[in-house]
Write a structure and sequence with these properties.
With 350 residues, the chain is α/β, with parallel strands linked by helices. Helices cover 38% and strands 19% of the residues. β1 (2-7) and β2 (12-19) form a beta hairpin. The chain binds 5'-O-[(R)-(carboxyoxy)(hydroxy)phosphoryl]adenosine and zinc ion (ZN).
């Protein structure tokens, strides 16, 4: 079965072709980052309009790459939620129209399930069961993944997601949006032990996390330094030192909680998914947990992409419906997916 996957939940348009026998055949991505950068964040209306412009060319590019025509697609998977309503609608209506025109089934995919399963697209695939750390701009969660559709929430951030904290901190340090990756590059030039930021909820006794206080600690430090220096701009070295300590604090919390999640579940496989999974320091820390094998999706599949949606769609072919009815779910708890349970009582996903 050849499954077309469509992703449009936020500021990336993705299309991909996954073959249930041959694996991932092609994936194409367009990021809107540059378009949103001048506004300092994602502008939903611009995002929706741009998705509409990109969806067909990206789909055609995938088909062209593998020398296939539209009529060879057997099913179409799209991100049904969670995400920005208008952006989701752009992808959903494109997917539904194509499915209707081709007379093929349509599969609505949960964006987080896509992220959770994305490591299975790598060369080094984890076996079930595993602990997944989903760490993106919108989510920071630990899940026990026992099979397709069998996800248990172990803990999550009670406020900002780790990626959001990276981006907000980068913004207050004057880095262009989205600054997470840039901040992490600058951290390489930072000196240790110049700053000391809190490790929030490190000893909370559960697997929940909090990152918004960390961002405030950075803001307080920046304000203090600037006040002392008569409101001068931060020196590059000071900024890099802050980046380093901020990243150390986030990574310390994530890696400590990851150890606790593994100990609590008795599992020895850790899978890291989501945009912050591209962070070099996090990779370093999580690769050195004793007795644990850590898996990362290929870098290109860490951030939002169509490949994970095509794959999750292929794994959920049984849920396919006819193209006549489609809807999007901007807010959609992952617990609504059959087989998902919440250990903490917190809602899964946004
Ligand atoms: O999964 P993703 O592409 O989008 C969703 O949020 O669903 O993740 C994007 C997030 C952004 O917050 C971005 O700043 C962060 O991942 N990110 C990073 C790095 N690369 C991307 N954060 C820290 N270090 C990085 N290298
Ligand atoms: Zn995502």
């Amino acid at each position: 079965m050849l499954v077309l996957g469509i992703e449009s939940s936020c500021d990336e348009t993705g299309a991909a072709l996954y073959d249930t026998d041959a694996g991932l055949l092609a994936h194409e991505l367009h990021t809107q980052m540059a378009m949103h950068a001048e506004y300092g964040g994602v502008v939903p209306e611009l995002a929706s309009r741009d998705h509409i412009r990109r969806l067909l060319p990206l789909t055609r590019a995938c088909l062209h790459k593998v020398n296939k025509g539209m009529s060879e697609i057997d099913a179409i998977a799209y991100t049904q939620g969670p995400g920005l309503g208008g952006a989701l609608l752009a992808g959903a209506s494109f997917a539904a129209s194509l499915a209707f025109a081709l007379g093929k089934p349509l599969i609505g995919v949960h964006h987080l399930e896509g992220h959770l399963l994305s490591p299975l697209l790598g060369d080094d695939k984890p076996e079930f069961p595993f602990v997944a750390l989903l760490v993106s701009g919108g989510h920071t969660q630990f899940m026990a993944v026992r099979g397709i559709g069998d996800y248990e929430l172990l803990g999550e951030s009670v406020d900002d997601a780790a990626g959001e904290a990276f981006d907000k901190t980068a913004k207050l340090l004057g880095l262009p949006y989205p600054g997470g990756a840039k901040l992490s590059e600058l951290a390489k030039q930072g000196k240790p032990d110049v700053f000391s930021f809190p490790r929030p909820m490190l000893h909370s006794g559960d697997l929940n996390m909090s990152f918004s206080g960390l961002k405030t600690a950075v803001l307080t430090a920046v304000n203090r330094i600037q006040a002392e220096a008569g409101n001068a701009v931060l020196s590059e070295q000071t900024r890099n030192d802050i980046c380093r300590e901020f990243q150390e604090a986030v990574v310390a919390v994530l890696s400590q909680k990851a150890r606790a999640a593994l100990a609590q579940t008795g599992l020895n496989r850790l899978v890291v998914a989501g945009g912050v999974g591209a962070n070099w320091r996090l990779r370093q820390a999580l690769n050195h947990i004793k007795g644990v094998r850590t898996y990362f999706p290929p870098l290109a599949l860490c951030t939002d992409n169509g490949a994970m949606i095509a794959f999750a769609g292929a794994m959920n072919l049984a849920k396919a419906q006819s193209a006549g009815a489609f809807n999007v779910k901007p807010r959609w708890p992952l617990s609504d997916i059959v087989g998902t349970t919440s250990a903490t009582g917190l809602p899964l996903g946004v």
